[in-house]
Design a protein that fits this description.
The complex is a heterodimer of chains A (about 500) and B (about 150). Chain A contains 23 helices and two strands. Chain A is mostly helical. Chain A has one domain. A two-stranded antiparallel sheet of chain A has the order 1-2. The longest helix of chain A has about 35 residues. Chain B is built from five helices and two strands; from the N terminus they run H-E-E-H-H-H-H. Chain B is flat and about 65 Å long. The chains are: A mainly alpha (about 500), B mainly alpha (about 150). At the A-B interface, helix 8, helix 9, helix 18, helix 19 and helix 20 of A face helix 1, strand 1, strand 2, helix 2 and helix 3 of B.
Chain lengths: ~500, ~150
Amino acid sequence: METLQHLLGGFQIALLPVNLLFAFAGVVIGQLIGVLPGIGPPAGVAILLPATFKLNPTSAMIMFAGIYYGAMYGGTITSVLINIPGEAASVMTTLDGHQMARQGRAGPALGIAAFGSFIAGTIATVILMFFAPWLAGVALSFGPPEYAALMVLAFALVIGLTAASPARGLASLAAGLFLAVVGVDVMTGLPRFTFGQLPLLDGMDFVPVAMGIFGIGEVLVSLEDESAGDAGAARLRLADLFPNRQDWALSRVPILRGSLLGFLIGALPGAGATTASMVSYAAERRFSRHPERFGHGAIEGVAGPESANNAAAVGALVPLLTLGIPGSATTAVMLGGLLIFGLRPGPLLYQQHPDYEGGLIASMYIGNAMLVVLNTVFIPVFVAAVRVQKAVLAALIVTFSIVGVYSLENSMFSVWLMLLFGGIGFFMKKLQYPPAPLVLALVLGQTLEMAVRQSLKMSHGDLGIFISRPLSAALLTVALAMVVLPALPALRRRVAGGRKVPEIPAPQR
Amino acid sequence: MRTADRLATLALLAFAAYVYAGARRMPYAEGGIPGPGFAPTWISVLMAAGALLTLMATRTSAPADCFLAGRAAAVRILSLGAAMVAAALLIPLLGMVTTLVLFILATVTVLGGRGWARITAAAVLVPLALLAVFQVWLKVPFPKGPLGF
């Protein structure tokens, strides 16, 4: 009952004209970001952060959430029409969506993706509405050791789930933690790693780092492939978009399954929408009576993953809103923005400002409804955006980024910092170092350090405090398992290989 | 690619050593409570561990493709990089708006944009729109050049 009252209050906030406007702006921008290859939701949110500092935080968060789940819708268009995922979470849609387009069924593929995303987004928002207050209540009992353990768990999950190579994930995480300690130490006042730069005394500004790594870095990487983004796309009519009865019969269960899987996976820190869509695709193929149809234009291969990635975008807000721990790169950027607004998401914010959370959740119902209209009635407009020249797009993204980052402090130092991290982001992507752990560690690093120092102050320097408290011990055990378990198969293979072949094979060069 | 990978891990190792050396100059603990050197010390250890594990993995991994997909790709990426650096250098001299107009024109031309009328319109209108949003609405004082904006 209390939840429904919060939701009612939330709708009063979300339906304010200014918030409706920002929800609409968010979903349109998100949809465009999804359509345009070379820029993902974290980059979109990071680039727009500076333009929102004069807004009230609720409006800004409503817009950012709109960008996040709007991008999930938009990514489908390029996946289906030109076989290029607009953003990573739409990769699986290329497999069957593009095959459907080649068979002249692009309309139903885009239609089922839009309707499936709407249903999944709505189901996930309902689950978020009931699940989040409970989790926030649990988190209220957390002390510094539990928070430290929770952050260690988040880092372990991010390394384990986002990185193809956990070693690279660890290196990326350590780099982010290093950036977080730059500046004056809050407990002793000692400057750390400021490289003689006065602006760094206040710490490493989060926005230039995020804009550099996600915005500039992605633009540089996208220039490598000359063709992507310049491809032509088919023209679609509204009447083509509606799936027929058989399409609906095949897609009903995958949409529901994708919604639940997506929400659960999205709520895990580090897993995110891409993993959710992959798991959903694998599940649909496994449960299908005709798995051989997958990869040849099976509509279930579009309906499931597209529903899952949208539900995951909503699920990723659970740890952010209730625990203050971002579940993905985009929510890490959103957390950075909220911190600049002076708001720290977590159980206290959830308890003290239910209007803020309620407004955000209510806006997600409205945003999803807006998106289903955008993805049916206005889809020809977004299809036209696919034809934007890559050269123009790259120049405009850099221009927005330079102006945005300059406006933070009215200083060229931030611009240079962004360019530096743009270069670093480019090399990270090329060398397959995942950027998400770096950004997550930069946002949470200082909080983790404070939590560890406060815990050890409580225990007079005894590290046992982390394992003597049940919740902290449980969280650390799960974190350890997340690091050790993925390494076990490789170790087992190595041991088994060692038994068969006594000599250690020479390394391949 | 493997060479680039190894160079990157070696650079990371060197940076971890730099962080460790910096951390050693700060108190590690004060009265049993972690001091300002505590976190950087452990961060340098994590960084070195990540770099070493990556280095070990690259020893056994299969040869990968080239670092960049050909000379043309390298030219496009380096051109944009150079244009961004030039823009950052020119903003204090020519002003934000003039520099960004030149930046868009130069970048789109070098990267192979087509349609002069549309490119020129974008090059002029986008910086002016940003001027309206940031300088007029958000009151951000942009650097001005000899033309007064």
